[in-house]
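Lecture notes, unit on protein representations.

Consider one protein chain, 236 amino acids long.
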Amino acid sequence: MENGQLVVVNTNQKQTKLSHLLSILYAPTNTFRALGQSPKLRWLILILLTAHIGITFFVSEGLLETNEMQGLLNQNDVQMPAAVLNLIKFLIILFSSLWYFFMLFIVYLLQLAVVKFMKLPLGGKALGAIILLSQVPQIFGKILQFPFFNPDQLQNEEAQIAIGSLGLLVSQFTTDGTLIRLAANVNIFEIWSYALIGLGISVATACSIKKGFLASFVIWALVFVLNTAVIFLLPR
């Protein structure tokens, strides 16, 4: 660690950006060390954006094929023009992508505040790179969800439970929708992401792994509390 930036480690000169991104799944410590003192965020954002667009495009295709959407789009036996359908897909992808990166930015600001509060020597750019890299497990989890995606069951709470969620286990023992939704807030892929953020902070600042995890899971706990409040406050 030097001046609060990630240390350069020459692990593999020929490693592609995509393989470097995927290496966060099986060699996270080396991946964080290889980020460098001035990590380039553009390629991280581009790859994550491409992955998110691909996932959202798949979901938007399914949404437009549901019985409810078909009924809304094709009223009075009038077929909706293909150009309009493509525009709807584009808007879904656009707003979904904007919301995704907005929430990432909120997590970044909260994480930066915690890092500063704990007086950890970590620059904002390095922290941004750590957070972006740590999103790979969640993207991986969304891809695993594809085989189980059924757009016609979007009104079914159990059908919307993500792969890796504690809600899947709880739903086997109870039909209480509130309890299932509460348990669904605990997701192994999300916890994996926050664990990676903690590890990245530890590597970048040379602090203990315990301190790095504390810095990251404070944010996870805050997000969990906010999601729980939404579950109990919003009408069902």
